[in-house]
Amino acid sequence: MNWNATRNPTWRLGLTGGIGSGKSTVARMLQTHGATVIDADAISRACTAPNGRAILAIATTFGAEFVAADGSLDRERMRTLVFQKPSARQALEAIVHPLVGDEIKRQTETAATPCIVFDIPLLAESPRWRKQLDRVLVVDCLRATQSRRVRQRSGWSDETIDAAIRNQATRLQRLASADVVVYNDGLSLEQLQHEVAKVAHGFGLW
């Protein structure tokens, strides 16, 4: 890890990584060091939870069959559709992303820590984010490691995992966007904690 940081009152750190990279684990570790973590995925899930703010628009755009019996987004049906049709993904993002943006803005305005971590899975795919951040931290690992972790965690088929990886930025694209990289492949949890602690210290956290 080679980077220079001068202390600002509040750092805005973008955190990203491919599916199965361990990004969420790193986010939790940064939180234990005192960072405010704003999780775009969690906000998105809240918008598509039972009777969430995005549900009516999803039903209108895609049809009532994309809303599960409990009033939430039918994620499996939607996942299948967006993997097959990029235009469907764009339509879904047009509904969800403005809602997520509003909530991120609200949480940012109420944060009071030396570092705000914006946990954004698709950061490398969204150029607008870069100009809003002081630094970008990428959690990196081999593609084979991604596949193994997702298979163990979620029980997805190899076909579904490959489709999910293809729908994200490539590893090289993510690394090209990085100011800081944590290589999370072959590390023990203790070793990963050590790497994250070095990042936290650089951003005024302890």
Query: Judging from the principal axes of the Cα atoms, what is the shape?
Result: globular
- What amount of the residues lies in strands? 5-15%
- What can be said about the biggest beta sheet? 5 strands, parallel
Please tell me how large the radius of gyration is.
18 Å
The helix/strand series, from N terminus to C terminus, equals: EHEHHHHEEHHHEH
SS element count, helices: 9
Q: Point out poorly predicted stretches.
A: 1-7
Distance between the termini: 18 Å
- What is the total tally of β strands? 5
Average pLDDT figure:
91
Structural class: alpha/beta
Strand order of the largest sheet: 2-3-1-4-5
The percentage helix is 40-55%
Give the topology, please.
Elements: E1 11-17, H1 23-32, E2 36-39, H2 40-47, H3 55-62, H4 75-84, H5 86-110, E3 115-119, E4 135-140, H6 143-154, H7 158-166, H8 171-176, E5 180-183, H9 189-202
Parallel strand pairs: 1-3, 1-4, 2-3, 4-5
Helix pairs in contact: 2-5, 3-5, 4-5, 6-7
